[in-house]
Structure formats: structure tokens, C-alpha cells
Amino acid sequence: MSDPNEQVSSPDPYSGGGVTSPTSGVSRSRGDASPGAHLPPFQDLTDAPGDDEGEGEELFGENMEQDYRPIPALDRYDPAAMDDEQYEGMSIEDRLAAEAELKKRDREKGIAAGRMRRGLLYEESDEEDEPPSRRRRMAERAAEAGEGIEDEMIESIENLEDLKGHTVKEWVGMAGPRLEIKNRFRHFLRTHVDEKGHNVYRDKIRQLCEMNKASLVVDYNTLAESAQALALFLPEAPTEMLHIFDETASEVVFSMYPKYKVIVDLIHVRISDLPLIEDIRALRQLHLNQLIKTTGVVTRSTGVLPQLSMVKYDCSKCNFVLGPFQQSQTEEIRPGVCPECQSRGPFEINMEQTVYKNYQRITLQESPGKVPPGRLPRSKEVILLDDLVDTVKPGDEIELTGIYNNNYDGSLNTSNGFPVFATVIQANHISKRDDRNAIYALTDEDVKAILKLSKDKNIAERVFASIAPSIYGHQNIKQALTLALLGGQPKNPGGKHKVRGDLNILLCGDPGTAKSQFLKYIEKACDKVVYTTGQGASAVGLTAYVQRHPVTREWTLEAGALVLADKGVCLIDEFDKMNDADRTSIHEAMEQQSISISKAGIVTSLRARCTVIAASNPIGGRYDPSLTFADNVEEEDSVEKIPQDLLKKYILYAKNRINPKLHQMDQEKIASMYAELRRESMATGSIPITVRHIESMIRMAEAHARLHLRESVNQNDVNMAIRLMLESFISTQKFSIMKAMTKTFNRYLSYKKDSNDLLLFVLKQLVLDQKSFYVTKYGHDQDYVEVSEKDFAERAKQLNINDLSKFYKSNAFQLNKFRFDSKKKVICQGS
Fold first, then answer.
1. Which are the contacts of 626, defined by CB distance < 8 A and separation ≥ 6?
2. Which of 481, 648, 708, 787 has the fewest C-beta atoms lying within 10 Å of its C-beta?
3. CATH of domain 168-272
4. Are 720 and 700 in contact (CB under 8 A)?
5. Domain 277-433 class?
6. What is the Cα–Cα distance from 323 to 348, expressed in whole angstroms?
7. What are 544-575's pLDDT values in tens digits?
């Protein structure tokens, strides 16, 4: 303390009126006169300023209030500011009302508005009359350690990539990095241009508003090029990053189109073209809470349901409205105590003020072609929200980008006996896959090899020979399967009636004639194939059905084999084992390529645009081998086969890149052939021919044009289609009718038919007969065999083949080590 004899006085009073108080810590010399010289010094005086000038005055001490005690000698009042009028005392109610008015005035002036913490201005007890929603928001912002400050007061983080020891999720949740992410993403949306200098997302935002949509699709690759840090953080903390992206995109869109807020409350950012694709079978715990991309077929879908988004509750006792409460996907947030009456409920949802959003669950299953042999296909539940609902149907093959989350499932815990969490994918972006997407997988070298292969004059024969090369013979079946894989061109004349372009095939033959082998080959040769058997198939299993979800007890629509094979091939073995009712149920799918469902309140139509290839045994059929096993083994095909990998790419390219037109087709030839065939069928009493046979011929002609990569159908395609259709139709008749029709339509059946195979078969039969003669006569086999040309020519005439000179020069004749001796008029084999 200072010397008691040292006089202390206050500075001059303020001239503005009101009460003035002295300030401690100011000393004067002994000689200075002061009105307060006779007063004792302040008890809270500190040492003289000169003793510790570095620290300055201590304005807030333990006895700070002593500075403001009344000192009549020093306190001076401005007469103009004095009010001598007497006021009566205020009641407590009047005082509270006055304070409420003052606080209301302060809020209107902006003193207490915004995010500033109210505790700096008022005591906590003063906030009881505030709305509960405001108090809750202020408490949440105060707890978030920094989010209560305006964006202008937050220091931006320049080095966003430096996490400073935090995880990505923690770093993104902080105020500084969050603001920097918003600034960078806003800059990306406003400034990103393509190669031509066009602003990409300005055009996308304009199209979004023109179509009244709420989703802005952002390409991940362009984001990675322009903002690498954002692309790095996005897969690791997708929930937080997408929330920031949505806020920023909404600000950008609403700044460009302010009135768009009336239509959409929030713009959702959808991430497309994520580079890494994870199989459903490969999803593990390390993928949890990350952004993933996977593919599959939609097998089940629920109806569109309302999900709680912003919930308000009514207190049943005092009718006070609580909320809004932001609901999350993982847990339900409910109030515990009513702030008005302090009761603990019950609380009822306020239906009028609660905000809902669309909600739908689908099941995504592995694509049929990607399931390993002997394994069951895996599936995952997917949640669709907002504008993603009803974008897909059962049977659609999709690429899904979403957040892989886990949630509590009580049924799993009950069945397993220990805590197990179910996994679910929250969808962010969905794109439907079609065969055109597979075209992009072809490299330039593949396209060059395909175009080079198409210039081969014998390309059709080479492709036919490469189909199921391990199966000998059955050339007509191989040709039909090839054309079915290529398919015709779908038509919709005038937009009124759709005509399918897919071909359906029924293989009917004796047991053991490689029908199932053909189906198995097709299963491996195509990308999207569903294989089933008639023995275990039913009508609903092939089409679609409705059943209750085992947990939610909600009706769900599930797809059958034909729906799952949409834009692919459906193979049905043992077709004859199905009952008549089940076979009838797939007629709509085979002709109209759609399946109608009207059950349990679900009325819809699913697409089944697939080729159906079925195999069946004849009633009472018997195995009648036409060749011995030795002949099959020794047979060497003279046609050069195409590697299976290149063949698969060739068919894929031809089916999706080539769209042949019909303007050059010889329609008169098909019309005359149809009239003649119909007249012949009526005369002989055979199975009648219908208009569907004409449609089949047109589809096969288009498929044959695709096989040669032609953009138009020519006469060769029509002739081949007529021949294949006639062979199939005539083979289903009785033997007598078959013989008569074969003779009548021989000019069509002989088109481009390779007679060398028939002549080679006849020649081998003559060689076998000659060897059998030697064994019978001499008791041993003969290595050198001669066959008379006269006998061979007589056998050839029975097949309507008169010219043998081309056969003697063919590869088939030479590869089987035959020689023709023109002098002796014999055909030799061996040495």
C-alpha cells in the first residue's frame, strides 16, 4: 500500500453528465490541493505506477466494487440530466415485463441476434422465456466449439491437406477446414471449364432448374483434377463432406436462381464416375462409413414411404410444441422433458409441422454373370432417399455409389445370440447399366481386330463353327444360336406398337444330343445370363412375385429369372418338365417382353427384354445316333475357328454398334414364300404357319446382317433367314409331310448349304464299308483303301449333287488324306 500521508484524488469529472467515479492508481504530489485531501485513501490502491510500469493498471481486483462507492465531494451531476420526479415502486411482474421488452428491443436492433452466445449479455435465468428451439440451437452451437462464430470470424485454413494429427472425419468437422472446403467447392462449381472453355456446372445448374430437379451430378474425376484435397477427403468422410457439398451447392444455385427456393429446399450433390468398383462379395469392415461404388441387379423393392426428417412433438399435458428435431439414419431423436411444464411425456408427433422425405429400400444382388461357380449370389440392402426413389425397378442392372453404413438389427442378434450389426448402403448416385457401357471397355486394338475379322469372306462360317466348338455337327442349331445372340432390331412404328427384336429358340431333341451343353456354352459366352431348369422353376419364379419382408412385414416386389435377365439371355433347361400353367405364364414375357403384376396392392409392369433359349425332350423320344463315337473324335473341321475371347467381343460389338435397316430387304420374296408355305401346310395338313414366322425371318435377317457388320439387310441375309426358318419348321412335321415339303422348298433349303460335309460323310461311309469287307474276307484291316468314283457319284446323286470337282479340291477332302486318281477313276486313302 502507498503512504497514508500521500494525497490521492480522482481525475476531472466527465463533462457528459451522470455520476462520475474516481479511478484508482493515480497519485499526485503533496503540494497539489485536492477537494478530497481529507479523505482516507482507497483500500485497494496498488503500488505506485512507477514501481511496475510494465504491467500497467489492475482494473479488476478483488475489491473492484469499492471504486464505485459514493463520494459526495467528488460526485458531480449535470443538472440537465437530473430527474427529481418521484416514481412508485414496480412490482415483480412489471419488472419482468419491462425486461422482456428490453430484450426484444435488443434482438430487433441486432444486439442479441445471430450466433453470438447469449450468456455474454444476459444471465441464464433471463433466457427462460426464449423459445426452446432457440435455446437448444444456442446450446448445440456452444458445444460445437467454434461453430457459434460467424463465417467471417473463422480463420480459413490455407494448408487444408495438413490434418495436424487428426483423422479426416475430425478434421472435416472443424470450423476452419469446413469453411475452406466450402470455399474450394464453391470455387470449383463456379470456375470449372471443359476442354472447349465452357463452364460445365453453370450449364448443369441451368438444366437442373429447367427440369425442376434437386440433384447436381459432380464427376469425381473432374473434382480430383481441380480440387485434389476434396477428392481425397470425400471417400474417407463421405457423410460430412456431402453435407458440406449440399450446403455449398444450394448457396450457389440459389444465388443464381433465388426463386428456386420455392421449388426445392436443398440441392443434393451426387458423385458419379467413382474410379474404383467394389464387388458386393468383396465388401468388408474396412469399407464401413466410406464412399463405395458397386454394381448389381435390383431384385426387390419396397413402396415409397415417408421418413421423418424434421420432427416436432406435442406435449400431451400442456400442448407445447417441441422441436424441430433433426432425425438421422442411425437413431431416432426424441425429447426427454417438456421445457414448458417439465413433464416427461407422453409426446405425440405433430403431423402438420413435421417435415418428411421420401424413403425406399431395394435389394441389390450380384449380377448373374459375376457369381463364382458353386456360390450363392450375395446381396445388400440399399436405402434410396429424396429424388432417388422410384428411379430403378426389379431387374435393372445398375451402378450404385453410396455410403456403406452399419445399423443395429435386433433380428440378427436374436438369431446369432451375440451383437451383430446389419450393413446397408445409403445411395448417393445411381446409373443404369446397359450393353452400351460394355462397349467402352473395348480398346482400340479390339475394334481394329473386329473390323479386320469382319472383312473375311467366310466370317459367317467361322463364327458358326466357333459356337460350342466341342460339339460336333448341329450346324443349324449353331447358326440359330448365333443369330439369337446377335438379335434383331426392335421396332416401334409410329410410337404405337412395339415389336421386339430378340429371338427365342426351343431346342427339341432326343436325350443325350448336347442340348444342355449348348445352354451351358451360352451361359459362359454372354455377359448377362440367367440359367434355370424347368424341373424346379415355377411361374412366379420365372416372372415376378410379391411377398412380405421377414422383418418389416411390408409387401415387397421381387423379380424372377426373366426379369433378372432383362437385356440378356434366359436359359431354361428341361422345358418339358414344367406344367402347362407355368409355361403359359411366360407367354407375355416372350412376346410382349413385359410382366404384369397386380397383387397385394402392387400394380406394375416389369420389363423382360431378353432372349429365351429353352431345351426340351420329345414325348417318348429315343436316342438315335447318326454317327459313331470314333467318327466324332476323328472329325477335323476345315473352317478356322475364332478365339473365344475375340468371338465374345465381336458379338458384343455387332449387337450394340450395328443397327441394320430394312429398306433393301426383298420383301416380295418373303411374301411369296409365306404364301406358298401356308398353301402347302393347308394341303398337307401340317402345322399351320402364322405371321409370327414372318417376324422371325425378319429378325434373323437383321441378325445375319449384324453378323457381317452391315448397316442394311440385303438378299443374302433374307435367303439365310428363310432357309433357317424352313429347316426349323419342316423338322417339326411328320416324316411324310417333311419329305414332301423338303422337295417343294428345296430351292430355299439349298441356299449356301455346304455340300462338302455331306459328301465327306458319304465318302467316309464308303471307306468304312470297304474296310469291313477286307476284315471279313482277309481277317485283318487294310491301311490303303480305294473307293470307286462311280459308286461315290451314285451316292452323291441321291443328295442332288452332280458336280464333284469342287469337293476334290476342298480342304475337307485334303485334310482327311484323300486323293483322287483321275486315271484309275478311284479315290485313295492311306499309303
1. 473
2. 648
3. 3.30.1640.10
4. yes
5. mainly beta
6. 12
7. 777 776 666 777 777 778 887 888 888 888 88
